[in-house]
Amino acid sequence: MSILIKNGQIVTAAETYIADIYVEGERIVAIGEDLNYDAEKIIDATGKLVFPGGIDPHVHLDMPFMGTYSSDDYETGTRAALHGGTTMVIDFILQTQGDTLHNALKTWQQKSQGKAIGDYSYHMAVTDFNDNVAKEVVQMIEEEGISSFKTFMAYKGALMIDDGQMVQLMKVVKKHGGLVTVHATNGDMIDSLIAKNKALGNLSPLYHYLSQPEVTEAEASARFSDMLHYTGCPGYIVHMTCEGALNAVRIATQRNQKVFVETCTQYLMLDASLYEKDFEGAKWVMSPPLREKKDQAALWSGINQGLVQVVGTDHCPFMWEQKKMGKGDFSKIPNGHPAIEHRMELLFSEGVHKGKISLTKYVEVSSTNAAKIFGMYPRKGTIAIGSDADIVIFDPKKEHIISVETHHMNCDYSAYEGQKVTGKTETVLLRGQVAIENEECKLNAGNGQFIPRGKTSITVI
Ligand code: URP
Ligand code: ZN
Ligand code: ZN
Ligand code: ZN
């Protein structure tokens, strides 16, 4: 298939200009003014923005968690992502404590192969570190194209590792050119606050929020950064929510450390007042929880300061019936919310349209930086000759309203019900194939490819 995209305003992390793009097979072959190719399909992009396909490096598809499974699988999740202009996701493989990384890898391959519609890769979550796992970490980097290792400083007894294991993991990962990523909250502090609130009979979703105050995240972010400093390993803090945690990274960057930061759409635009809606607040029960307006302001400015490099979603949807597992006990509400579909549109509307970030910054945080940090640039994350033709044609003026009635995620509520958005994904190409056109997904399950990643190309960012 060959496609010619005419007259769009191309946006990369570096610049924006009007030109044509010619795509042949899976790749971008030419970019220039008035290109003259005999293409099978011509798309007129006059008045439209043309972005590299979005990359969401934080999603949980078909994940076993808190006694149930997240409700989007690889098929429904990557389809919804494509509808919103995200052409690639990075999901998390969870090692079962006491079992091997390779067994966990097999389980996730079964979840994704033949099912994914969009492209994907995996982070490997190390939940139990020992000498054998250390050898497997090296094999993941050298043989499996998995170069990022997720750790949890919370969820004790299920996913959490202790500081001793963390330091050992960092040493191995550093030596072999990988990256350690982290859910940075102090699990012991949170567990004691949960126990205290339950003993007092404080059982509504509001107490999920009150059991994870800012200090629990700031402390863990600082401790993680210090362990990185001690081991010399590069690191990445996922789903950062607050000013205190960001200040910990500010100190680390003053020591010239590589500590990358991801925030998520919801932490930039939603706040903790949503937990005051009685049990409806369960819709936004996630960890860490939503915070305050002052934290939103700190995160937006963190993006512009270059302290926050990536905006993901932590997409981890549960049906309302699943959320009700925690009716009468907030600690049993499955943590997570549906978000994969609307990241690009929300970030454009709240960020670019409202003047908080520039167009080039938008592309940086929604696509390019994730590709660079996670070792797949420039194949992914930019519009350049030779790159995969993952391309979003976006109408910056079109207004629409987010609703469960129209979204494609397998979740029976929307976290943004009724929200007006300016800017809409119109056409999406995935490796040169038309994925989304006229609000329809044109690709089938099994089309998505696993993208093996190189050693983290941390020197390019
Ligand atoms: O609430 C959340 N974030 N659920 C998914 C698991 C995690 O901690 O990222
Ligand atoms: Zn949409
Ligand atoms: Zn997390
Ligand atoms: Zn997560």
TrEMBL record:
InterPro entries on file: Amidohydro-rel, Hydantoinase/dihydroPyrase, Metal-dep_hydrolase_composite, Metal_Hydrolase, Metallo-dep_Hydrolases_sf
Annotated GO MF terms: dihydropyrimidinase activity
Keyword Zinc-finger included in the entry's annotation: no
Keyword Hydrolase tagged: yes
Cited Pfam families: Amidohydro_1
Family as reported in the entry's similarity comment: Belongs to the metallo-dependent hydrolases superfamily. Hydantoinase/dihydropyrimidinase family.
Protein name (database record): Dihydropyrimidinase
